[in-house]
Amino acid sequence: MNTAFANPFDLTGKVAMVTGSRTGLGQAIAIALSQAGASIVGVDRGPADETRTAIEAQGGAFLPVTADLSTTAPLPAIVQSALDRFGALDILVNNAGIIRRADALDFTEEDWDAVVDVNLKSAFFLAQAAARTMLAARPNGKSAGGKIINIASMLSFQGGIRVASYTSAKSGLMGLTKLLACEWAAKGINVNAIAPGYMATNNTAPLRADAERNGQILARIPAGRWGAPADLGGAAVFLASEASAYVHGITIPVDGGWLAR
Ligand code: NAD
Question: Which residues form a coiled coil (predicted)?
Fold first, then answer.
């Protein structure tokens, strides 16, 4: 029996970097990848104590890296931190993201740049830095390859309202996922994305606090509930593992059926 395929979702021995892992979806993705066996490099602008405690409690390894992804300046050092601690970087999850809400007529350049810089620009340049490591030749002359997972959005598919920079960045991120897959699939990197539906996190607290918007959103989710961060774990482990070896450039909605409506 080929034991390598006994559990194609097994991430034992892999090193996974998750940005925005202090809270919300990034925290849940980091915990899920750790449960599948990966060591976690958690990148966030604030301390990720809660994530670290949860991962270490389940016997996993967690390296916190404090960095602000609103510029590209810290990116080389972030990748180097993973290499220094674990000697490799196999999986990157570009999850860190922010949102700014205003009518398009009033939208400021500051709100445009802030969102695009974190959600799109830093995601690209971190993918580039990670891919250079994943594709570097090892002593045997071959590269290790890797997995890159971008966290997209329903607004990669739809327009939304009052979130011009967010929709632009997330639509761009889905396009970028396809471009990177085309360039790197043959080199051994799977680039894919997950599009979460409406998930209960800090990011969506204002929507849930608005009774009218909350009701409108719930009414069109076939599953009948907001998503929980842990709902993303299965798709994240799938895209991070050998189970998705021939999967390139797709964006998987994990949305309770929102897009099917
Ligand atoms: P969240 O606000 O709960 O968490 C975002 C995390 O990113 C936080 O830990 C934050 O500290 C970190 N972060 C933000 N800016 C950063 C920066 N400049 N440098 C470093 N870290 C930074 O949000 P969330 O809901 O967990 O969202 C995670 C991702 O999922 C985002 O990309 C978001 O756009 C996307 N998303 C969320 C939903 C949802 O319904 N919650 C839906 C679709 C997509």
Answer: none
